[in-house]
Input
Amino acid sequence: MEQSGRVIGRKPILRALAGEAMARPPIWLMRQAGRYLPEYRAVRKDVADFLELCFTPELAVEVTLQPIRRYGFDAAILFSDILVVPHGLGQKVAFREGEGPVLEPVRSVADLTALDPAPLRERLATVYQAVRGIAAALPPEVALIGFAGSPWTVATYMVEGGTSRDFSTIRLWAYRDPIGFEKLIDLLVVATIEHLSAQIEAGVEIVQLFDTWAGILPEAAFRRFVIAPTRRIVAGLLLRHPGVPIIGFPRGAGLLAEAYAKETGVTVIGLDAMMSLGFARDRLQVSLPVQGNLDPLLLVAGGAAMAAQAREILSTLSGGPFVFNLGHGIVPQTPPEHVQQLVDIVRDG
Output
């Protein structure tokens, strides 16, 4: 089987995502390229800002490949950010040291007139150039993952103007004017399909939808603003790219993860660190492959505590199709040697 000109049939992660239970599950980690690695910091110190790093193809290629060289993960994930999509739509996006992302807020239907998905591919052309460079450089057994933020999560940053403690501005807009707010969600559905399609065309073999803030919504809003748009994205992508594996990561979904898995059409569901392993095995893995879910702070702690939980995850989930990962991204204070310890546990027991 081929996709984007690359032979994929023997890659371990693609076998797992296709539903095969493997004696040694494949492993990759969210945020596996980043500040915990000294080689990443060496590249980052010479770059003016984070977006420059994302939009400079040779640098994005280099930092994507760094954890593959060091640990031999079964997949590389494109070094980029979920907020390149608002940038591609024309919203002003910046990253400030010590503050994180800062966006010019979008807070009404009238504000949406300044956003345009038509030039998105042109505005993000260097991202797709980086994908082509990574795809050409990866070892033949390593797959390439592309990604985007899901509409709800991307919208939180667009509306709040950055990170938030309580997400009150976006939730009030969604509750008071759901029809108007849904116009922003609709725009992001279109943009997300386009962005992920461009990545697939450039060489990614798997895509992941990050819905980091899915868990802040009550059930009715979760179904409307998380499940429904994800279902549309999955359908749109599979229409253009039949068979591409799509990982959905609805962080904080809790019991609603089952509805998400059944109703969105995702190929794989990512488990956050709070997800019960028994629930994941008995209610989710019976229907689709699962990915997860070591607490990133256990990776910081390392040693016996990390090893015990990693082995518990392996023993619970390795009976079905499974990809080992964290329950969220690697944090900057993670010792690189602890990542190697984890890789050794997953591969050698």
